[in-house]
Backbone:
C-alpha cells in the first residue's frame, strides 16, 4: 500500500489542492483532501505541492529514442516505450506504417514479446495499424507502394495473426471495401479511424454510420473544401467538425497546428471529443540532427531541428518528435485551456475513445494506479505504473 500526500490532484473537472491518494496492489482505493486523511500506513510519497495526475495515454505513436516500432527487433518496441514513459506516458498503443505483410507480422511478433516485459515499461495495451488502406492522394509519409484497398482475405488474415492485439485501425473510408471492413471490425472492439483520406462529407458520414468513429491526426493527410463545377464540396476536415460524436486527435506539438487552429478545433468540437497524440517518430527524445522517418529499411532521411522533423530541403515537416508532456504544455500555453482540461485530453479522453476508461484515465477509486507527478511547467518528476515507481 502506498499513500501520496500533499498533492494537487488533477481530477475530471477540477484540481484539488492539498489532496491525497492511496493505492493498494496497483489499484486506487481512496482519493480525497488532506484533512480527510485520518491515518497513514504503508509507504508514503510526499508530493510536496506538486501535481498528481493520471498517467498519459498515447493512442498514436511510432517511436522514439532513435528507434521505430517497425525496425524489426524487440528492442525497437522497448526503447521508444521507455522514452515515452519517462515523459509521463503510462499507457501506449504502438503504431505501424503501411508496409508489406512480412514487416507488419514481424512488428506484431515483437509487440507480443514486448507485452511480456514489465521492467520500466508503460502498459502496452494494443497496436494501432495506420494503413495500408489509404488514399494515395493523401499518403503523406506512407509508402505508396504498399497502399491498397481493403479486402476481407487480407485484413482478416492480419487479424487472425495478431491474436487480439490490434485495438485501432486507421483507413480511408472512401476506398472500395472500406465500409464492409468497418461493418466487420467495429463489432470486435477495434477503434476505426479515418486517416490519409480524400473523403467528401457524404463519404465521411457513411463511414461514421458504419463504425468509423475517430479521425487520425486532424488536418494532416486529409481532404478539405474543394470546388466541383462551381460548387463547394466539404472534405474530411469539415466533416470532423460537423459530425456529432466523431472524435478527433491533435498533434499539439506547437508545430503541426498553429495556436489559431487549435483554438478553432476547441470552438468546433466538444472538449470530450478531442484527444492529443504525439504521432512521434524515432526522433522523439533525441537531440537535433539527421534522422530517418519510417523504418531503417524503407524510411527516408530527414533532419530534426527546433522541435520538429523536417525534410532535407527544409520545405516541409517530416514528422513529430513530441512527447506527451509537451502536448499538455502547448495546449495550456497556446489555447488558454485549464490544466485539468489539457490533462484530460491526454488521459481520460483517449481512455474513453479506446474503451478502457473503466480502468484508466482519471484519479478515481477502483482505477489503475498509473500516476505521474509534475510541476507547474508539466516537467515530470516521478512516474508510477500500477503503483510501482519507475526508474529510468
Residues:
Amino acid at each position: 500500500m502506498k499513500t501520496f500526500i500533499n498533492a494537487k490532484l488533477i481530477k475530471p473537472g477540477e484540481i484539488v489542492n492539498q489532496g491525497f491518494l492511496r493505492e493498494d496492489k496497483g489499484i486506487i482505493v481512496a482519493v480525497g483532501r488532506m484533512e480527510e486523511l485520518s491515518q497513514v500506513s504503508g509507504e508514503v510519497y510526499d508530493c510536496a505541492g506538486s501535481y498528481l495526475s493520471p498517467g498519459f495515454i498515447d493512442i498514436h505513436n511510432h517511436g522514439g529514442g532513435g528507434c521505430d516500432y517497425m525496425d524489426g527487433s524487440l528492442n525497437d518496441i522497448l526503447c521508444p516505450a521507455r522514452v515515452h514513459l519517462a515523459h509521463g506516458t503510462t499507457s501506449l498503443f504502438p503504431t505501424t506504417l503501411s508496409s508489406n505483410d512480412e514487416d507488419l507480422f514481424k512488428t506484431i511478433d515483437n509487440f507480443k514479446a514486448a507485452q511480456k516485459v514489465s521492467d520500466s515499461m508503460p502498459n502496452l495495451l494494443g497496436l494501432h495499424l495506420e494503413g495500408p488502406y489509404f488514399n494515395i492522394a493523401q499518403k503523406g509519409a506512407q509508402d505508396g507502394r504498399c497502399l491498397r484497398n481493403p479486402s476481407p482475405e487480407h485484413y482478416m488474415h492480419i487479424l487472425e495473426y495478431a491474436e487480439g492485439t490490434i485495438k485501432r485501425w486507421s483507413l480511408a473510408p472512401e476506398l472500395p471495401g472500406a465500409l464492409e471492413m468497418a461493418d466487420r471490425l467495429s463489432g470486435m472492439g477495434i477503434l476505426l479511424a479515418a486517416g490519409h483520406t480524400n473523403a467528401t462529407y457524404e463519404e465521411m458520414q457513411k463511414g461514421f454510420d458504419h463504425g468509423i468513429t475517430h479521425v487520425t491526426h486532424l488536418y494532416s493527410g486529409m481532404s478539405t473544401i474543394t470546388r466541383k463545377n462551381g460548387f463547394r464540396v466539404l472534405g474530411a476536415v469539415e466533416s470532423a467538425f460537423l459530425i456529432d460524436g466523431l472524435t478527433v486527435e491533435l498533434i499539439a506539438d506547437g508545430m503541426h497546428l498553429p495556436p489559431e487552429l487549435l483554438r478553432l478545433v476547441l470552438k468546433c468540437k466538444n472538449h470530450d471529443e478531442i484527444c492529443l497524440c504525439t504521432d512521434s517518430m524515432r526522433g522523439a527524445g533525441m537531440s537535433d540532427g539527421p534522422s530517418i522517418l519510417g523504418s531503417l529499411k524503407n524510411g527516408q532521411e530527414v533532419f530534426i531541428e527546433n522541435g520538429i522533423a523536417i525534410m532535407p530541403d527544409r520545405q516541409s515537416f517530416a514528422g513529430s518528435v513530441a512527447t506527451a508532456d509537451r502536448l499538455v504544455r502547448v495546449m495550456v500555453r497556446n489555447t488558454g485551456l485549464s490544466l485539468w482540461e489539457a490533462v484530460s485530453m491526454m488521459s481520460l479522453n483517449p481512455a474513453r475513445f479506446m474503451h478502457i476508461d473503466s480502468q484508466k484515465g482519471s484519479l478515481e477509486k477502483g482505477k489503475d494506479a498509473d500516476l505521474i507527478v509534475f510541476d507547474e511547467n508539466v516537467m515530470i518528476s516521478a512516474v508510477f505504473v500500477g503503483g510501482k515507481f519507475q526508474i529510468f
Summary: The longest helix spans residues 101-114. The chain has two domains: 2-52+374-389, 56-360.
